Amino acid sequence: MIAILNESILWWHWIVLGIVLLILEMSTGTFIMLGLGLAAIIAGVIDVFFSTSFTIELSIWMFFSVLTIAIWYQWFRMPTVSHTGQSNYTLDTLGTLSDDIAPGKRAKVIFDSPVLGTSSWQATAKTHIAKDSRVAIVEVNGQLIEVKNI
To answer: Structural domain of residue 137, as residue ranges?
Structure first.
């Protein structure tokens, strides 16, 4: 059977298979067949230049298929960064403390630019900070913002 395949499967069969898989990929949108199609085209191109046997072509196709699918899954599993919500807000906004703040107590902070839609927030701090001090956000904890003196 392998001898028949070695004689009958030519380089252009791999390229046609790759193109068919790429066309099928356009109708599914899963990106799995994209890797299989690219791997088939690579196997066909390698067969053009090196005239390899079917078993080597099949091995090349399987190797590049697994490689491209692994790369796709690695890229797909990367965490996406969303700029909405409290946990992903940038913490570089500065503000001015309108009251003294003691550890465990709350005070009002007026920020230079709105933080999550408003410029005025209730804030806590781990250290004592005097009124009219410039503060930076350390962490957003629900409806409270933890600040530090800068």
So the answer is: 94-149
